[in-house]
Each structure stands twice: as structure tokens, then as C-alpha cells.
């Protein structure tokens, strides 16, 4: 058997050397399909199939709160709520709390901002990970006044200590305080993914107080006990919520308080799961189109080799032997395409990760490792069988006398012609499905780009900084810093306006339930939570948010602590709670323990605070002087005609003049933040368009090849028709009609498939229906146009046949 295989391989290689053009086209088509599949599968494998680097990660879940009466879902927990959860729950082996933040590394050339996680000592045990060097921090170290310690990720160890094996015991100046390195995590381990280091979370005495239950800033993870399911955990947490309601009725009774349980995998991957599976399915269609193209080439090649096959059969070669030979040729082509496809996948995987950027979770896990290699090998072998088996079976059952007679004239049998036509119909159907998907994603992306964000991002530079509590312990220090920094920046030449906030637009949630003076909330009434923003007086002007009524915020903190509180709300807030237009002068109070009754002094247009694809929510803009925050987002608008990026050096110089130990980080034009917020949709549209374009090209080549081959085989027929008086226009129409019939069948089949698959896209689209008629009609028209163009050249060649020469050739 091995001898027969070696003979078949040698025969295949000798045959392909004699047809280098055929071999090159076939290998390139397969490499394109296999390489694209391998690259996308590498991403799917790294993001969806590779488990997190934790012990039994399926037992790790995220725990969050819900307040139905305020429309709040999956919210953080406060310190007292975390302690209740840890004490009362029975479904978990351990629970841990953490909060994200930043620490400023000083003592080096320039201050650097590092992403840090403050976590309870149970954090690493709950996740199921241990340091590769040293240890995790202990309960004794999570106490006020103890020596500060830090656990580094492998990345931080490499960047800041050059992987020094003696790193344990060394100190880092973080926020002006010395921290001792006690551990280093294994490579590839970081949770959340952006974390660079971990420090103990030490709640203050104030945060522990019962009146701080509304101060929710902790994320909580839990490790289920062995054998406990998520449904069982939900049941247990429902009991915990009831006990909390009974213990603290003023906070939880009749507000719809509950807990939610989310798997770690779902929390990390989020909404990209469906998109990645969709892209893998789409690139699988591209491979089908490539296989159809190569199968068509093989059928044409087999028709040309009909005489050879007939002679081998006449000399005693069995049908099985012929099938084996043809399959060997297919497998050699597919393996060559697989090798080249692997090289393309090496580049394509890196390109995909770079293209998606931060929108791709677990991007560090994406690599071309053993599983994608096995996948590529399997796809290569399957591809060889897929495109080779049909032509092999067809070629091996040719009638001997017919094949000898047709092979001598270089014609192909009716069965071969039907198979080639069927393959082209399939290619057209695949192209239409992908084109519909690409059209819908493109229209969705364009609709998102056209959304009015409520602000003008052009000309604005943004950046972030964090005020360490050691140097800015109270509101007075924070307000004084803001006032001095903003004054300096406003005086810079080239600056039109400047402001600070706790969160930039599109940057996430910071919401709160609230009360309206003189309007009690009914027990079954839902008041959607208000999106809270702490802003300086110039912030809304810097973003050019349009005022509608009243005036914007005034005052910089010098007016004294007893000055009345003022707030500006957005149009959605005003329309929802004061539909009669009497919002100005009304008073509201957030459910914060330090909040006060605040008078509405202005109404502005809606700003998309959560994202362009999320409808505007009620929003309230409070003076930063009244509710200062240590987390500041800076916005600086350049004067007309100026470049915002050119202001960075001057901004950093002014920041150093105010406090040389602070670092400005995440500096970027606001336009970039807007683009990044929809980058995942742009990438989806781009990749679907690329896949659809490839399938369309293959379909066009298939139509052109079938029509061209048909014209070559029907030269005598064309000559006779023209000799009998058929006009060139008649011949042209005849040939074009053949191409259009194949296209029409493919379009009908593709439309049926597209209508069946479109519902899967509905949740991924914005501003366009999954069954958008214009998209379907436009794609069908595009395919028809491409089919005419693809058939035009062979059809023109048919009209130039000289009847006398054609008849003499026969």
C-alpha cells in the first residue's frame, strides 16, 4: 500500500510540474481559504476555547447587585454588602473583593502611572492562582498601618525589574509611599487583564460603616464549592438578599434588591463571543468557495485528461485505483495550500489582533500554538477530500468508449458540465450570503458613525490622572489642585477651553438612584438610575455640549462650602421626570450618604455617556468643587486651527509645575476615543467585507471559467450557428444567458440561506434591520453585474469565432 502511495505521489508531482499554472492557482486559492480559517480560529481558540490560567476556572463566578426599582443591573457592591455576602452565603468556598485603580510610580526619571488592583487577601485563592515567586499578601497585611506590600504581574516584573530573580524584598515608590515586593505571578496571569500589580485592599473605618451601604465600588468574585452549580448559588444568594432586607429594611426593602451570578468566562469574553463565531463561520464559507474553485479546475483538468484515464482503465486500472490517484493529487494540492496557508496565518493572526486592539479580550492568549496547527492540518486534509472526492468519483466512472471518443476531441461529458455548473451555483450562493452579511455590518457601522454623540470631539485632547490620598486627603486639597491646574491650562496659548470630569463620554457607568423633592416613589414604580458626572464649570463648554434651558455650572470652589448645590441635567432626564417642561428649579438628591438636595439650574442636550450604540440615559452634571474625585479625566480644546496633540508637552509641563509626582496617562485625542468605542463593529464590517470580496472574486472566476471552458468546447457549435446565419449578438446573448442562469440559481439559493441566517445577526446590528430589503436587493444586483462582466470576455471570444476555421478544426 505504501508503495502504491509513493507511486501516486510521484505521479502527482510529475503531473503538476507539467501544469504549473494549474498548480499555482489551485495552491493559492486553497492557501487563502486555509490561512484565513487558521488565523480566525487562532483568535477563537485564544479568546473562547482556551480556559483562563486558573485552577478549575469553571467554579469562579462574578457576583453583582441589582436594584429593580432604579433599573440598576450588575452593579458593584459596597464594603458592608461584601461583608454580608462573605458571611451569609453558603454556596462559596471563598469570596474576594477588588477595585481597579492606578498608582503613580516615582523615584525614577519621570512619574509613571501603573494599573493596580486593590484586592482582599482571599483574591488569589478565589481565582485559583499562586505566585511563581514569593507569596500573596496575607490577612495581617490588609490592616491599616501595616507595611505596604505589592504582588507584581510577570509584565511588571519584566518592565520595571528586568526579571531580576532578587526582586523579592525590593521596594517601589507608589503614590509617594514605599511598597515591598512580596510576590510575582506566573506569565500570562493577570486579572483583570489590564492589571500590572496587586496591593491589599484595606477598607477605611468610614467605608465599613452601615451608612456607607450606598457607596458601591467593589467588584466581587466567588469560588463555588465543589458540586455547587450556578443555579444553586443563585438560590443561595436570593436567601442572602432576603436576610439583608430583613436586617436593613431602610436600604433594601421594596427596592427589588437581588444578586446576579455570571461565569468568569462570560464576564471576560462578553459580547464578542457571537461575533467571533460568526466570523469563523464566514471564513468557513470562504474556504467552501475556494474548494469549489479548485474542484472546478480539477474537473476541467480531468476532462482534458479523459483519454489518459480511458487508456489507464483499458490497461486494467480499477475504479478504486483511479479514485486513489485522483485523491492523492487533491491531497497534495491541499497540503501544499495548508503549508502556505500556515505562513499566511502567522501574519494574519498578528494582523487580526493588532486590528482589533483593546476591543479583543484575552488578546495575549491568541497565538498559533498546537491546537491551531492541528486545526490547520485537519482543515487541509478535509479540504483535499472535499474538493477532490467529487471530481475523482466522476472521472473514475467515465464510460470507456465515450471517454475515448470525447477525449480525442477534447470535449467534456454532460455529467462533468453539470457538476461544474453546480459548483458555480454554490460559489454564487456563498458569495451572496457573505455579501449580505458584509452589507448589513457596513450599514450598521455607518449608522453608528452618524449618531449624534451630543458633543464635538474634534480639537479636544484628553488624559487621565489620579490624586493620591496621602497628598490629597480631603475635598479641600482636591478642589485646590483642580483650580490651580485648570487656571494654568486655560492661560496656555493655543487653549480655547479646559475642563475635568470623573468619566469622559463613552467611558462607562457611574450611576445612582435618587429622590425628587415632593415626589415620593411608589413601591412598584421604576425610576431609571441617573448617570452621575462630576465636572468643572468649563467641561461642558470644552465639549461644546449644547445648552437648552437655564445656564451651565458656575463657580470654582472659592464660593465656600455653604453655597447651595447646583446641577445641570440632560434632556432625557428632564423629559422623563418633568414632561411638562418645568424641570428648572426642581430639586433632587442622589442616594449617597454625603449628598445634598440640589437645584436644577440648566438642561443640556443628551451626551452618549455609555456608548454610541446605547440610548442616552438620564444624566446629571454636578460641580467638581462640591463632589471632588481623585480620579480625574482632563479635556483640553485647542483654539480653531490648532492641533490638540501639539498641546501635550505644555499640559504635562503645567501638571509638573503643580505636582511633579503626578503622571498624565491615557493621553489621546477625543476623536480616537470615539473611534475606539466602535472599533469592534468597524473590524467586523471590514473582515466581513474582505471575506465577501474574496468569495465574490472566486465566484466571478468560476463563472468566467465555466463559460470560457464551455465556449472552448462548443467552438464547432458556434461555428455552425454562425454559418447558418446566427448573428454575433445572438451568440453573445446565448453565452451571457448561460452565465446569468447559473447566477440566478445561485442568487435564489443564496437568498434562501441569507434569510435563514439573518436572524442570527439581529443582535449585532445597529440602526438596520436584519432583513433590510435594500441590502438584499443591492447584493443581488451586484452579483448580477459581476456575472455579466465575468461572462463578457468569454462571450466576446465566442462572437469572434470564424465558422470556416472552426469547422476545419473539427
Jot down its keywords.
eight-stranded mixed β-sheet, 16% strand, alpha+beta, 810 residues, 50% helix, six-stranded mixed barrel, single chain
For the termini, the CA-CA separation is 43 Å
What is the number of beta strands? 23
Radius of gyration: 34 Å
**Regions with little confidence, pLDDT below 50 for 5+ residues:** 406-411
| Main sheet properties | 8 strands, mixed
Helical coverage, percent range: 40-55%
Mean pLDDT: 85
Number of separate helices = 25
How would the global form be characterised?
Answer: elongated
Structural class based on helices, strands and sheet pairing: alpha+beta
Classify the beta-strand content into a percent band. Answer: 15-25%
Structural account:
By secondary structure, the protein is α+β, with helices and mostly antiparallel strands. Helix content is 50%, strand content 16%. The chain contains 25 helices and 23 strands. Strands 14, 15, 16, 17, 18, 19, 20 and 21 form an 8-stranded mixed sheet that branches. Strands 3-4-9-6-8-7 form a 6-stranded mixed barrel. A 4-stranded antiparallel sheet has the order 13-22-12-23. Helix 11 runs antiparallel to helix 14 (400-409) and helix 22 packs across helix 25 (803-809). The longest helix has 38 residues, at 319-356. The protein is elongated, with a radius of gyration of 34 Å. The chain starts with a helix and ends with a helix.
Amino acid at each position: 500500500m505504501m508503495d502504491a502511495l509513493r507511486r501516486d505521489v510521484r505521479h502527482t508531482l510529475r503531473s503538476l510540474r507539467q501544469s504549473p499554472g494549474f498548480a499555482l492557482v489551485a495552491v493559492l486559492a486553497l492557501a487563502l481559504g486555509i490561512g484565513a480559517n487558521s488565523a480566525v480560529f487562532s483568535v477563537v481558540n485564544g479568546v473562547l476555547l482556551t480556559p483562563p490560567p486558573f485552577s478549575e476556572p469553571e467554579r469562579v463566578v462574578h457576583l453583582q447587585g441589582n436594584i429593580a426599582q432604579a433599573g440598576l443591573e450588575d452593579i458593584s457592591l459596597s464594603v458592608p454588602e461584601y461583608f454580608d455576602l462573605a458571611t451569609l452565603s453558603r454556596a462559596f468556598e471563598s469570596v474576594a473583593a477588588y477595585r481597579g485603580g492606578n498608582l503613580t510610580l516615582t523615584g525614577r526619571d519621570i512619574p509613571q502611572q501603573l494599573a493596580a488592583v486593590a484586592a482582599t487577601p482571599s483574591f488569589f485563592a478565589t481565582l485559583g492562582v499562586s505566585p511563581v515567586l514569593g507569596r500573596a499578601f496575607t490577612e495581617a497585611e490588609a490592616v491599616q498601618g501595616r507595611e505596604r506590600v505589592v504582588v507584581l504581574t510577570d509584565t511588571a516584573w519584566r518592565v520595571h525589574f528586568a526579571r531580576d530573580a532578587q526582586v523579592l524584598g525590593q521596594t517601589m515608590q507608589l503614590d509617594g509611599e514605599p511598597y515591598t515586593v512580596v510576590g510575582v505571578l506566573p506569565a500570562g496571569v493577570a486579572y483583570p487583564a489590564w492589571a500590572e500589580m496587586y496591593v491589599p485592599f484595606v477598607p477605611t473605618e468610614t467605608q465599613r460603616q452601615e451608612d456607607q451601604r450606598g457607596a458601591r465600588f467593589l467588584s466581587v468574585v466567588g469560588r463555588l464549592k465543589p458540586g455547587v452549580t450556578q443555579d444553586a448559588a443563585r438560590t443561595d444568594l436570593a436567601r442572602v438578599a432576603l436576610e439583608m432586607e430583613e436586617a436593613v429594611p431602610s436600604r433594601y426593602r421594596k427596592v427589588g434588591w437581588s444578586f446576579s451570578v455570571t461565569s468568569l468566562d462570560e464576564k471576560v469574553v462578553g459580547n464578542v463571543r457571537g461575533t467571533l463565531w460568526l466570523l469563523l463561520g464566514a471564513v468557513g464559507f470562504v474556504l467552501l468557495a475556494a474548494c469549489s474553485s479548485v474542484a472546478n479546475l480539477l474537473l476541467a483538468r480531468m476532462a482534458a485528461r479523459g483519454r489518459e484515464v480511458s487508456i489507464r482503465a483499458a490497461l486494467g486500472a480499477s475504479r478504486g485505483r483511479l479514485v486513489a490517484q485522483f485523491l492523492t493529487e487533491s491531497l497534495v494540492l491541499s497540503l501544499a495550500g495548508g503549508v502556505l496557508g500556515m505562513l499566511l496565518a502567522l501574519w494574519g493572526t498578528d494582523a487580526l489582533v493588532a486590528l482589533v486592539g483593546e476591543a479583543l479580550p484575552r488578546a495575549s492568549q491568541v497565538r498559533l500554538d498546537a491546537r491551531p496547527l492541528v486545526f490547520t492540518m485537519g482543515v487541509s486534509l478535509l479540504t483535499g477530500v472535499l474538493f477532490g472526492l467529487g471530481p475523482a468519483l466522476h472521472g473514475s466512472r467515465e464510460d470507456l468508449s465515450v471517454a475515448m471518443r470525447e477525449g480525442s476531441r477534447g470535449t467534456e461529458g454532460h455529467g462533468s458540465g453539470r457538476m461544474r455548473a453546480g459548483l458555480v451555483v454554490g460559489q454564487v450562493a456563498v458569495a451572496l450570503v457573505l455579501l449580505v452579511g458584509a452589507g448589513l455590518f457596513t450599514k450598521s457601522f455607518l449608522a453608528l458613525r452618524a449618531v449624534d454623540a451630543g458633543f464635538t470631539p474634534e480639537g479636544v485632547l484628553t488624559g487621565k490622572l489620579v490624586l493620591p490620598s496621602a497628598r490629597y486627603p480631603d475635598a479641600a486639597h482636591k478642589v485646590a489642585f483642580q483650580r490651580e491646574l485648570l487656571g494654568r491650562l486655560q492661560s496656555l496659548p493655543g487653549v480655547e477651553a479646559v475642563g475635568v470630569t470623573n468619566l469622559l463620554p463613552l467611558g462607562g457607568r457611574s450611576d445612582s438612584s435618587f429622590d425628587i423633592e415632593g415626589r415620593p416613589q411608589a413601591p412598584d414604580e421604576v425610576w431609571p438610575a441617573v448617570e452621575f458626572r462630576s465636572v468643572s464649570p468649563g467641561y461642558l463648554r470644552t465639549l461644546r455640549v449644547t445648552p437648552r434651558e437655564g445656564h451651565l455650572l458656575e463657580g470654582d470652589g472659592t464660593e465656600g462650602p455653604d453655597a447651595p448645590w447646583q446641577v445641570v441635567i440632560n434632556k432625557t432626564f428632564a423629559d422623563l421626570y418633568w414632561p411638562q417642561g418645568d424641570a428648572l428649579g426642581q430639586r433632587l438628591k442622589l442616594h449617597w450618604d454625603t449628598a445634598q438636595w440640589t437645584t436644577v439650574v440648566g438642561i443640556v442636550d443628551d451626551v452618549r455617556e455609555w456608548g454610541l450604540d446605547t440610548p442616552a440615559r438620564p444624566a446629571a452634571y454636578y460641580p467638581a468643587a462640591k463632589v471632588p474625585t481623585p480620579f480625574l479625566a482632563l479635556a483640553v480644546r485647542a483654539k480653531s486651527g490648532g492641533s490638540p496633540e501639539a498641546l501635550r508637552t505644555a499640559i504635562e509641563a503645567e501638571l509638573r509645575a503643580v505636582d511633579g509626582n503626578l503622571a498624565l496617562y491615557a493621553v489621546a485625542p477625543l476623536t480616537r476615543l470615539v473611534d475606539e468605542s466602535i472599533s469592534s463593529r468597524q473590524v467586523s464590517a471590514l473582515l466581513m467585507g474582505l471575506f465577501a470580496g474574496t468569495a465574490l472574486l472566486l465566484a466571478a472566476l468560476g463563472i468566467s471559467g465555466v463559460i470560457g471552458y464551455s465556449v472552448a468546447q462548443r467552438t464547432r457549435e458556434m461555428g455552425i450557428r454562425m454559418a447558418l446565419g446566427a448573428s454575433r449578438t445572438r451568440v453573445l446573448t446565448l453565452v451571457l444567458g448561460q452565465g446569468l442562469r447559473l447566477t440566478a440559481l445561485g442568487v435564489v439559493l443564496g437568498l434562501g440561506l441569507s434569510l435563514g441566517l439573518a436572524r442570527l445577526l439581529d443582535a449585532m446590528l445597529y440602526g438596520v434591520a436584519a432583513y433590510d430589503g435594500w441590502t438584499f436587493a443591492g447584493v443581488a444586483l451586484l452579483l448580477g453585474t459581476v456575472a455579466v462582466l465575468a461572462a463578457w470576455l468569454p462571450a466576446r471570444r465566442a462572437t469572434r469565432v470564424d465558422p470556416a476555421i472552426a469547422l476545419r478544426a473539427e
